Amino acid sequence: MFTGIVQATCEIVSIHHDTGLNTFEIAMTPELTQGLVTGASVANNGVCLTVTKILNDKVFFDIMEETLAVTNLGNSQIGDKVNIERSLTFGTEIGGHILSGHVHTQATVKAVSHTDEHYNIELQVAPQWMNYIFYKGFVGINGCSLTVGKVSDNGFLLHLIPETLKLTNLSHYKVGSKINIEIDSQTQVIVDTVERILAKKQLG
């Protein structure tokens, strides 16, 4: 499990293509690799991946075809920066909201508004996912826990503060880019439960 508080952006230094999977080599800082072991879970752009090897602060992850197909890791290239978060540990402060690292869908960047006063990103997602996205609600964006600023029929707006832009890769995304989305699990459970109850009442 993760908190959605990105610890660093780290560079993809190599991608090895094999049958059924790709192996990513990510250059991390000594602080991030301290205590990290093979088999541990690390969020890369919000995707929970298992560490397969650690070599001189280079961390390796095997990524299956399904994960490559449904997340933006499938479009990643050598030199790209990914948002990194180590797994949640007991006793640490939770500043965001609980994320599983299981990406539900990808959003398309519809617009970017960057002025002296603000930095906004407008995202578009498939209509079925908008049932779980609410004004002032939480959503995981490339592994970042963010608050929804505005909602439309097929998308939503994010207001990004300078600290978020500094610590994450969100400022690198342009119109047409794909961003990983994890909806809030509690919101999903509530919405799905209410829909089932209403459907039963209509049938009854």
UniProtKB/TrEMBL annotation:
GO terms for biological process: riboflavin biosynthetic process. Catalyzes the dismutation of two molecules of 6,7-dimethyl-8-ribityllumazine, resulting in the formation of riboflavin and 5-amino-6-(D-ribitylamino)uracil. The keyword Membrane does not apply. InterPro entries: ATP_synth_asu-like_sf (IPR023366), Lumazine-bd (IPR001783), Lumazine-bd_dom (IPR026017), Riboflavin_synthase-like_b-brl (IPR017938). Coiled coil: none annotated. It comes from Shewanella polaris. GO terms for molecular function: riboflavin synthase activity. Lumazine-binding repeats lie at residues 1-97, 98-194. It comes from the Bacteria. Its EC number is 2.5.1.9. This is Riboflavin synthase. The keyword Hydrolase does not apply. GO terms for cellular component: cytosol. It catalyses: 2 6,7-dimethyl-8-(1-D-ribityl)lumazine + H(+) = 5-amino-6-(D-ribitylamino)uracil + riboflavin. Keywords: Repeat, Riboflavin biosynthesis, Transferase. Residues 1-97, 98-194 form the Lumazine-binding domain. PANTHER family: RIBOFLAVIN SYNTHASE, RIBOFLAVIN SYNTHASE ALPHA CHAIN. It is an enzyme of class 2 (transferase). Pathway: Cofactor biosynthesis; riboflavin biosynthesis; riboflavin from 2-hydroxy-3-oxobutyl phosphate and 5-amino-6-(D-ribitylamino)uracil: step 2/2.
